From TrEMBL:
It is a multi-pass membrane protein. Pfam families: Lipid_desat. This is Lipid desaturase domain-containing protein. It is found in: Membrane. Residues 114-282 form the Lipid desaturase domain. GO terms for cellular component: membrane. Belongs to the fatty acid desaturase CarF family. The keyword Transmembrane helix applies.
Length: 302
């Protein structure tokens, strides 16, 4: 039985030529059924190795009041559409539950939706942090934005609300609107309304996790303190080396389970051995991962 203890050693094999073909020696320990450990052997794997895409990130952050951080009427329109579809779904859940005198099931599915929204935010965050680049179809702009966020995480606190959330609001609108029109089941809408609402506002929860408590509404601070929203202290671990943990940004309730059981590392190994693609987290952090701290002049511009 071959046991690969650390996948990061596979990321940079001796004599490896990025993107090329070659012989890649891997040292494995072999353990027999009577627990006798044999001498480590070397295997040669013939496989195409692909380096994770290198993103080209601007060398300077957006300036204060940069137009790219401002909300537009298009952004606000998508926020209105997303909120409308979520509110219709929640209203159908409440009205249907009241009519059937069954409040428990819609509340239970709503709670499940809230829990799964946190998991979904982590999986999505892990994916765009580690795979693809700015040229990736559909997700390219978000991949580039999240990589820039690693370098200048404080910028998210400068984005206006609609600017920060509109992309998710647009996705929620396209997904939830057909469900609103086709179904009246309060149990279904309890799940859909809560899950889609948490996903849509996850970027705002993310922004709050980068803000100091003195700048947040008291209710938000209390929700963070009781663990209903991801806190600043919990999310801060994601922005420290090795940059491969605490991906969930709704409540963060899944982070400990995912990190302790190395769920994302296992997924990375599956992708690597099937597609030969390495995640960015296997490489030594570059300047694109390392945070540029706000200067005093930037702080005083708030």
């Amino acid at each position: 039985m071959c046991i690969l203890h650390q996948h990061k050693y596979l990321a940079r094999p001796p004599g490896h030529v990025p993107g090329g073909y070659g012989h890649r020696p891997v040292t494995c320990s072999v353990i027999t059924t009577n627990n006798t450990k044999l001498k480590p052997t070397q295997l040669t794997i013939h496989q195409r190795l692909q380096d994770p895409p290198t993103l080209v990130i601007s060398t300077s952050p957006p300036v204060f009041n940069d137009p790219s951080l401002q909300s537009t009427w298009v952004h606000r329109a998508w926020i209105a559409a997303g909120c409308a579809t979520v509110l219709v779904s929640l209203a159908k859940a409440i009205v249907g539950a009241a009519a059937s005198h069954n409040l428990l099931e819609p509340m239970l599915t709503g709670y499940i939706g809230y829990i799964l929204a946190d998991l979904a935010s982590g999986v999505y965050h892990w994916g765009i942090d580690n795979y693809g680049d700015e040229s990736t179809p559909i997700f390219g702009s978000q991949i580039e934005a999240f990589q820039g966020h690693h370098r200048w995480p404080w910028i998210i606190t400068r984005r206006q609300f609609a600017n920060n959330v509109h992309a998710l609001a647009r996705a929620v609108t396209f997904f939830v609107l057909p469900i609103d029109l086709a179904y009246n089941d309060p149990v279904l809408h309890g799940f859909v309304g809560m899950c889609s609402g948490c996903i849509m506002f996850s970027q705002q929860f993310h922004a709050w996790a980068h803000s100091t408590k003195s700048k947040l509404p008291p209710l938000v601070v209390e929700l963070q303190n009781v663990g209903l929203l991801v806190s600043r202290s919990q999310h801060a671990a994601h922005h420290r080396p090795p940059y491969n943990n605490n991906y969930c940004i709704v409540s963060g309730v899944w982070n400990q389970f995912l990190d302790q059981n190395r769920i994302f590392e296992a997924l990375e190994m599956v992708i690597y051995f099937n597609l030969g693609v390495r995640p960015r987290s296997w490489c030594e952090p570059t300047s694109g991962w390392t945070e540029d701290v706000e200067t005093q002049s930037q702080v005083t511009l708030q």
